[in-house]
UniProtKB/TrEMBL annotation:
It comes from the Bacteria. InterPro entries: cNMP-bd_dom, cNMP-bd_dom_sf, RmlC-like_jellyroll. The lineage of its organism: Bacteria, Pseudomonadati, Bacteroidota, Flavobacteriia, Flavobacteriales. CDD domains: CAP_ED. Signal peptide: none annotated. Residues 29-109 form the Cyclic nucleotide-binding domain. This is Crp/Fnr family transcriptional regulator. It holds the Pfam family cNMP_binding. It comes from Chryseobacterium kimseyorum.
Length: 189
């Protein structure tokens, strides 16, 4: 739980007493490599804070092709947010790519936390805003850049993920073939 407190205190301060109450809203889960935290069609019960590991959030189109929406690593939050906030069945999958750990938070817990601790409401607002900005940046890059530019931007922003994630997943995330990614990788050595 110390990691949870450190994560929260990157944005807000909490007293020992407040944290004792805050932590009761979270559950801890160890995750195995290739384990799913969420399948398409599931009830979306949790938002997940990554403590350790690398995860991918993706959906399958009508032809069964995988489309990666997000990778998540330490201190990143993830779930199928549309389904989480609207309390609908999931349209996404969340899969662990390596051994990991997460903290789980229900929507009800998030709402109660925000009501009881206005500083937590601020915390969630900052996190949601940062996520929204990152999503807009990703959309802009996908819509208006070349594969080379997408590769360079991803490499610059996430050099650690370039090493930790299989190249086939990076290719999917960037919207290029595995062969194109190999060519881009070779050109940037």
């Amino acid at each position: 739980m110390n990691r949870l407190r450190q994560h929260i205190e990157e944005i807000i301060s909490v007293t020992d007493e407040e944290f004792e109450s805050i932590k009761t809203f979270f559950t801890h889960k160890n995750v195995r490599k290739n384990q799913f935290l969420l399948h398409e069609g599931d009830d979306v019960q949790f938002e997940f804070l990554v403590v350790d590991g690398i995860y991918k959030v993706y959906y399958l189109d009508e032809s069964g092709k995988e489309h990666i929406v997000q990778f998540a690593k330490k201190n990143w939050w993830m779930t199928d947010y549309s389904s989480y906030f609207k309390q609908k069945k999931s349209t996404m999958f969340v899969e662990c790519l390596s051994e990991g750990e997460v903290f789980c938070l229900t929507l009800e817990g998030r709402e109660k936390l925000s009501a009881e601790f206005h500083t937590m409401e601020h915390f969630f607002r900052v996190k949601l805003t940062n996520g929204y900005v990152a999503l807009q940046d990703r959309i802009k890059i996908l819509l208006s850049s070349t594969p080379q530019q997408r590769y360079e931007e991803f490499s610059k922003l996430y050099p650690d993920l370039m090493i930790q994630i299989p190249k086939k997943y990076i290719a999917e995330y960037l919207g290029v073939s595995r062969e194109t990614l190999s060519r881009l990788y070779s050109n940037n050595k």
